[in-house]
Design a protein that fits this description.
CATH class of one domain: Alpha Beta
Subcellular location: Cell junction, Adherens junction; Cytoplasm, Cytoskeleton, Microtubule organizing center, Centrosome; Cytoplasmic vesicle membrane
CATH architecture of one domain: 3-Layer(aba) Sandwich
CATH topology of one domain: Kinesin
Bound molecules: adenosine-5'-diphosphate, magnesium ion
Structural class: alpha/beta
Main location: other
Number of strands: 15
Organism: Macaca fascicularis
CATH superfamily of one domain: Kinesin motor domain
Helix content: 55-70%
Oligomer: single chain
Protein name: Kinesin-like protein
Number of helices: 16
Pfam family, one: Kinesin
Length: about 800
Amino acid sequence: MNVENTGGRLFGSRRCLSLSGPPGAAPVVHRMVEAMSQLQEEKAQLQEELVVLRERLVLRDSDQQVTSTQLQNQVEHLKEKLISQAQEVSRLRSELGGTDLEKHRDLLMVENERLRQEMRRCEAELQELRAKPAGPCLGCEHSQESAQLRDKLSQLQLEMAESKGMLSELNLEVQQKTDRLAEVELRLKDCLAEKAQEEERLSRRLRDSHETIASLRAQSPPVKYVIKTVEVESSKTKQALSESQARNQHLQEQVAMQRQVLKEMEQQLQSSHQLTARLRAQIAMYESELERAHGQMLEEMQSLEEDKNRAIEEAFARAQVEMKAVHENLAGVRTNLLTLQPALRTLTNDYNGLKRQVRGFPLLLQEALRSVKAEIGQAIEEVNSNNQELLRKYRRELQLRKKCHNELVRLKGNIRVIARVRPVTKEDGEGPEATNAVTFDADDDSIIHLLHKGKPVSFELDKVFSPQASQQDVFQEVQALITSCIDGFNVCIFAYGQTGAGKTYTMEGTPENPGINQRALQLLFSEVQEKASDWEYTITVSAAEIYNEVLRDLLGKEPQEKLEIRLCPDGSGQLYVPGLTEFQVQSVDDINKVFEFGHTNRTTEFTNLNEHSSRSHALLIVTVRGMDCSTGLRTTGKLNLVDLAGSERVGKSGAEGSRLREAQHINKSLSALGDVIAALRSRQGHVPFRNSKLTYLLQDSLSGDSKTLMVVQVSPVEKNTSETLYSLKFAERVRSVELGPGLRRAELGSWSSQEHLEWEPACQTPQPSARAHSAPSSGTSSRPGSIRRKLQPSA
Ligand code: ADP
Ligand code: MG
């Protein structure tokens, strides 16, 4: 648009110049204008070329777009083919279902996966290629160059626009100057014409004047006058002439001036010509640069095109190769399929054969089942009879076992005596009185040594526990006795000793470290549970106290009530205590509740429980009743756990009133216990059970197959040595009471009140050889007058 406008104006000015330009300046201006218009034309041409190039670029872009879409289509097509092949493979697989084919299928699947990845890669490459023409590859040197060229081009275009502006300005100026020149030329022409007219007029007058003068000279005097007039008139003419000459001079000056102006204008035109030439050169230069840039761009595009084609070809070749591989795989699968078909046929045949066989199978099975059933029935009968036999044998064995056990216990001694020495405690105080007076034998755990009044005395019992022995150690020793209770044996465990020697600790213990009572019940529970598949057991518990020969129920509602011991009315000779509470217990929790209840009864009853408990015997009676589920055999075992009253002797002078009565009762019952045990061990016909409430109550648990354990509690400190000596003597005597038949009658007697124990045994001599246990028969025979009362003939 711009170009055309300028062109139009230029043509306009040219027309004007050609019509009215002066003969000297017009060609120059004309030439200049022509050159400029030529330049403009060239520029327009260049711009047209640029437009064409741009169009070609756009065309190429669209071409590339088309190619890429074609490629995309190809890829899509390949994908579809792949999918169809995968489907084909899966179809074949489903048709065959064989293991070989499955392997093949797996292989194909792997291959497929690989191909898919390849395809994805191709697609990515394609994407890249597509991205290239759209936005010139970043960082590529060609693209940079091309950008530079583009910049240059736009710069050149800018400069060209500027030059155009300048050119149009110059054109305007030239136009103006040409107009002025034309004006000046016109004026000059007018002046020249005027001058010519004036000259002509003047010369005509001069000619007229000359003619007049000549005519006047031809006439005489008047002529003189005329001459004179002419002369006068001639001067006037001369003045006019000089004036016109001056004017002529002035006009010539003006022409010269105009010429000068024209010259200047020509010079200006010259310089504008030069400028135009310079501008032209510049335009040429820009054009060449533009050409070069264009060439570079073309080259670049060419190389890009080549790259793209190469990549496409490669991708296509790869896809073809992969397709080929897939085809080959497919062919392999097909051949496999062909080979598998016969196998399938034979399998089908086999299957049909088997099917026919299976049809006949149920009949066969029924027959086999019938025969097997008969065999099993026979076998069951045999097993049944065998079982009966075994049961018979088992019962016989059970009886035998009980007999053996009895025999063993009898051999071991139905009455066993052990000692437990408690540790020295804070209550023992300090000083020489609290020093330890008890030592043990490192090699023999049935020996205990006591230093009494500077003299060493030794005793042998069934077992001696040092202060280090734990509750569990002691319990271990009595465990067998307790379990025999389940087998229907009666058991008595006594804790004997002076007050403070540890009887209650051994029997009851502390909540954190319970004694025999709780451990025994726990053991019974677990044993009963173990036998639960064959036996049904019930365990009941009673608690009683004997104080001043009065029996009280510790679990009853009326603890003050005196209880009596009576013979069973069924004539079995068994004893029973009417009104004695019996609690059935099933768990340790139950036992704890029972104990607590007993304790509360005792606590509310007596203000000084400790004092009271040391003056009374506390009994825990556990009855275990069992029934053999298979035989219906019933057993009853009784476990009597007795915390005896303190065995210390009360001085004759110090005791009065109730204190004396208590002491007498305690001594009487303890003596009676000694008597009974002695009578039992010596297997006398008469055992004086009725001499005390304690022995009478425990009669059926002390006689017969019953087992008795006496735990003699010992205080280790110096100040208690005489009581310790007394206890140990009692223990040893109980233990060694069993005598030969010839000696029995002569030696044994019952022990009455406290004096009866004040004999001095032969073992009091310091020689170790003279220990009481070393010669039981001679030891007991050498007790001079110690046994006050002789054995009573059996009632
Ligand atoms: P007893 O019932 O013979 O009068 P205790 O059982 O009450 O004697 O014991 C007296 C003290 O000695 C209690 O404080 C008891 O805890 C403690 N005692 C007894 N024997 C032991 C022992 N083997 N280990 C630790 N302390 C004991
Ligand atoms: Mg006690």
